Structures are given as C-alpha cells and as structure tokens.
Amino acid sequence: MPTHPGSIVQALLNAADGTPEKPALLFGGDTWTYRRLLDDALAWGRGLHRWGLRPEDRIALFLDNTPTFVAAYLGTHLAGGIAVLVNTQYRQVELRHILSDADARLCLTDRQRLPELARVERELPALEAVIVTGATETPADGPDNGTPTVPRLSAEEVLLADGSGDLRAPDPEATALLIYTSGTTGPSKGAMLSHRNMAANIAAIAEAWRWTAHDRLLLALPLFHVHGLTVGINGTLLTGATVDLRSRFDAAEIYATLLRGETTMFFGVPTMYTRLLAEAQSHADRPPPLRLYVSGSGPLSVQTFEEFRERFGHPILERYGMTETLMNLSNPYAGERRPGTVGQPFPGQEARIVDVATRQPITDERMGEIEVRGPHVFKGYWRRPDATAAAFSADGWFATGDLGWRSSDGYYTIAGRARELIISGGYNIYPREVEEVLQRHPAVAEAAVLGLPDPDYGEQVVAAVVVRPDVATPNGPAALAADLIALCRDQLASYKKPRRLVFVDSLPRNALGKVQKHVLRERIEQGDQGTATGRA
Ligand code: MLC
Ligand code: AMP
Predict the structure, then answer these.
(1) Which of 57, 349, 404, 441 could make a disulfide contact with 414, Cβ separation 3.0–4.6 Å?
(2) Do 369 and 331 share a structural domain?
(3) Pick from 338, 339, 393: which is nearest to 370 by CA?
(4) Among candidates 524, 515, 525, 519, which has minimal Cα distance to 184?
(5) Average pLDDT for residues 314-339, to the nearest whole number?
(6) Is 164 found in the same domain as 291?
C-alpha cells in the first residue's frame, strides 16, 4: 500500500519545508511558491481560528477557482474545520439545503455569488457570517441589496486578524470535506471524507500515474468537485509539483497553453476532450506530447479516445471515481489503455462485481454492480447513519450504484447505473430534483425527466410534462415551455435545466404506477410525443 503523510496539509508542510521556492500554483500571471501558499494557508487558518471556528465546524466554500479557494481550503484544515464544497452554479434550492443540512457557521463567497446567497440566508439559522473575497468596498453595501441578516466580513478583515492560533496538521481520521451528492430518493446527502481518505487516495494515484515534483498540471476543472480538488490540487501538493490553475475551461486558451509545451499533464471530463478536438481543427500545429492526459467523471466514448489518439498522438488514460470514494479504477500508465474501459483498482484499493439482488460476488464477464473497498472510501453520510448503513456491506464494501463487469484479464467496464442519474459534461443531475421544481408550476400535472444523448455534453436533460387540463395556458405551449425552463434556472443550477421540453398527454406507467422512463425515452426518440417542444 502506498505510504502517505496522513493529510494534504501535512503534504503542504513537507513541500514548503523541502522546496519553499518551488512554484506550487500559477494563476492569472502570478506565482505562489510553496512558501507563499503555506503563508496564505496559515493566514486563513489563523484568521478563521481567531474568528472562532472550532474543530469540526463547517465552512462552506462557495467560490470559483482562485488561489484564495486553495488557501482557504488548506487554512480551514489547519484550523481544524470541515470544508463544505458548493458548486458555484447552485441556486436557492441547492444552497438552502446544503448550508442548512451542514449547519455551516461560515460561508466564504465572492461578490458575484453573494446575491444568490442573500436570497436564502434568512433560512439558515446556523450561518453566523459571510466572508466575501475580492471586496474593495464594505461587503454589507454589496449588490445583494436589502438588509443582510447575516454579518458580512471582507476576506481582508479575516486575514488581518492577528493571533497565533492553534494551528497544526489535522488528525488523519477527522472529517476534512463534506460534499453533497444526490440520491434517487430524498434530498442530497453530505459525503464525509477524512484527511486520510484524501491522502491515501492521492498517494495511490500518484504512484499509478508516476506523478512527480517535475510535473506541471494544467487544471481547468472546478475545484468544488473531487476531480479538480482531490485529484488536481491534492496530487500537486502531495508530490511537490506545480499546478497551472485556470478559472474555467476555455478550449482555445487551453489549446494555446498546450502548444507552449510547459504542461506535462492535463485532466478533464470527456466534454473537454471533444472540445479540444474541435479546437484542433482550426490549428495547423499540434501540441508537443504530454506525459499524461486523463479523462474521468463520465464515460469517454471510444470514438473520442480514437480521434484524440490520432490527432494528439496520445491514448487518453480513462479512470473512474465518485464523490464518496474518490478515485477507484484506472487504466494503466504503462500497459494497455483500453478504450471503453476504466481499468483496474489503484494500488492498495479493491473492487469487485456483485449480483445486484444477492450482493454476492460474481464471475468475470458477467454484469453486476461495482463495489469498492479500501482507505479511499468515505466515512459515511453526514448525520445519515441509515443511508450510510445501507451503502456498506457488513465487511466494508461500498455499493457504488454503477453497473458493469470485469474482463477475464482484469479490466472493468461501466455499463450503466443502478440509480437514475444523468451525467452532463461531468456534472451529475438527478431527475427527481428537476421533476420536483417543474411540479411546483401551477400548470404542471406531472413531469418526468430523463437523459438523452448529446454530442457536446454526453447527455442532455429532457423533460416530459403533462399539463393540467383545468389550468389555462393562454400564451400557448411554447411560452409555457420557456416559463418552465426559466423556473428551473431560477431555482436550480443552470446546467440542470431541461435543454428540451416536450408536452405529453400522459406518462407511461407500469402496474405499480411507476413511470416507465425507458418507454418514454423511446417515444421521445421516435418523435411521436407531444404537441410542442421547448429548447434551451
Ligand atoms: C455548463 N452548462 C452546462 C454544463 N456546464 N450545461 C449542461 N451540462 C454541463 N456540464 C451550461 C451553463 O449552465 C450555461 O447555461 C451554459 O452551459 C454555458 O456555461 P459555460 O460556463 O460556458 O459552460 P461550458 O463551457 O459549456 O462548460 C462545460 C464544462 C463544464 C465541461 C467546461 O461543465 C465543466 O467544467 N464540467 C466539469 C464538471 C466536473 O468537474 N465534474 C467532476 C465531478 S466529480 P446558461 O443557460 O446559464 O447560459 C466526479 C467524480 C469523478 O464526477 O469521477 O471525477
Ligand atoms: P459524483 O457522484 O459526482 O461523484 O459522480 C460519480 C459518478 O460519475 C460515478 O458513480 C459514475 O457513474 C460516473 N463516472 C465517473 N467516472 C466515470 C467514467 N470514467 N466512466 C463512466 N462513468 C463515470
């Protein structure tokens, strides 16, 4: 089993001690050496401690990719706190649920996100202060108008607070992160990841992918999900390498950076690879070979794998992970990278395929559910012992909810999901949360949401809606479709909105009354559904 330092903070302390002048983070033309990054992290740790953050208190990080995000994440851990990751696209429904379920005492955000937070802050009794980054004026006078119920602090005020604080590397068993992830039923649950989970997983990844201090990772993934943070940032800090961090993915900008030849690794979701291929069409030059391109968070098509190999001369390494388990399976660094598969367990981790009904292991080449076990698997769901117990077998195997099989030579293939889940551009969308919002509209009798193929995002959100016969829709179905899509955008993260909305007379149901989504899918694909279609 790969050795690890117990926490990412300890990895940072080690790197800052060994190579203080080495660049850890490049962002916006500026460089954070390991010494500078540690100083910033310590400043956040002291500031939070001085504010009154106690061990295991939750602080929500609701901000885009910036060095502040990285320093505050590490500073939270130095102060003993738990960072709650919040997707910056989240809107009222997600914010209200996550911040209240986590009982977050603090939220760190930026001016752009503040108005959305302000919409729900009255419903968050545990929230004691909002820290606003990048503020030049008094945050209380910010664009969120109205009188804030929760005090605003500028990041400068927090950072300038003096006092030494009781800062140290955290207990490896303590919870480091709470990341909300949805299920088929009920509201989303907070997955509790310990410092040890993160350190053990990234040590296994670094070994498998031969990540060293010589690497420079180009990272345009959002830091509020595990792909960007617990692989990209944690791996850089563990190995004492350098990360070239971008605020967002822009294919032209990424291509231009790759052409410069300083990057050794790039990690992305499949949509990023299809966009890089499209970008390549307008360039005569190809980037010099990279040591490693990795894809994950959703299925990479064999076609994209092959096209990328042809145009970029590199077989993308596909791997498979999830919030609760961090990274599970990976194609080999040195051996065959088999398209359409996600490879084998990382060193020191286990995987198996079980029969969905009996939960007993089954033989190779047969389809079942993927279960995993090892030091990377999370502690459980926050304040949900029932859900935690349901997810684990008696001997510690975690049921992923992903269906697949193992070939006789050990390669796993993901073939579907036991739960209803749409993956669009690497973001997860649970149909139920979109259906709930649609059903709030007075004209909607019922709604069903499913994923259909999309050339850019892999899958797209499609809604089928039955209109109430007793409610007038004077402006016609197209206007109603636009209203419904606008409602979703107002309440939920914009990527969850239906890209297509069809009106149907009724939803197909089985004898038990359950909506038969496969039947609905066929009907929509055959185009024999509905009187109107709205598109977003
Ligand atoms: C953005 N939009 C999306 C979308 N991303 N719609 C559907 N699916 C998506 N993934 C919408 C926005 O809401 C916006 O809508 C419009 O598209 C344009 O926004 P944008 O910011 O310009 O987005 P875009 O460039 O299209 O973003 C694509 C992307 C991004 C691929 C760069 O989605 C992304 O960074 N995805 C990575 C997600 C990720 O890191 N997942 C890892 C989860 S961890 P409008 O209407 O408002 O204009 C995990 C475990 C594991 O899964 O194994 O790693
Ligand atoms: P999340 O809950 O956001 O962590 O998403 C994790 C889910 O993404 C997994 O359970 C899989 O369904 C999916 N996933 C991640 N990597 C891959 C991959 N390489 N191929 C197919 N699906 C993947």
Answers:
(1) 404
(2) yes
(3) 393
(4) 515
(5) 98
(6) no
Distance 320 CA to ligand 2 centre (A): 6
Contact by Cβ (8 Å): 5, 11: yes
User: Residue 381 maps to which CATH number?
Assistant: 3.40.50.12780
**Pocket of ligand 1 contains residue 272 by CB under 6 Å:** yes
The per-residue pLDDT for range 20-47, each reduced to its tens digit, is: 999 999 999 999 999 999 999 999 999 9
Distance 471 CA to ligand 2 centre (A): 40
Kindly list the distances between the CA atom of residue 156 and the CA atoms of 38, 73, 131, in Å, as whole numbers in the listed order: 17, 16, 9
- Which tokens in the block code for residue 500? 């297509």
Q: Does the residue 240 lie in any domain?
A: no
- Per the structure, the count of domains in the chain is 3
- Expressed in angstroms and rounded, the spacing between residue 359 Cα and the centre of ligand 2 is 21
Q: What is the mean pLDDT of residues 361-370?
A: 97
To 10 degrees, what angle do helices 67-78 and 34-51 make?
60
Task: Give the distance (Å) from ligand 1 centre to CA of residue 38.
Answer: 31
Q: What is the pLDDT of residue 471?
A: 84
HSE-up (13 A, CA, CB side) for residue 77 = 31
Q: Is the distance from the beta carbon of residue 318 to the nearest atom of ligand 2 less than 6 Å?
A: yes
Q: Is 424 in the pocket of ligand 2 (CB under 6 A)?
A: no
Domain enclosing residue 104, as ranges: 8-190
Helices (H), 19-160: 34-51, 67-78, 92-101, 114-120, 155-160
pLDDT in tens, 250-295: 999 999 999 999 999 999 999 999 999 999 999 999 999 999 999 9
- With cut-offs at 50, 70 and 90, classify the pLDDT of residue 134: confident
* 322 in contact with ligand 1, CB cutoff 6 A: yes
Q: Which atom of ligand 1 is nearest to 231's Cα?
A: 54
Residue nearest to atom 5 of ligand 2 (CA): 322
Q: Which residue has the higher pLDDT, 143 or 411?
A: 411
Instruction: Give the helix/strand (H/E) hosting 404.
Output: strand 398-406
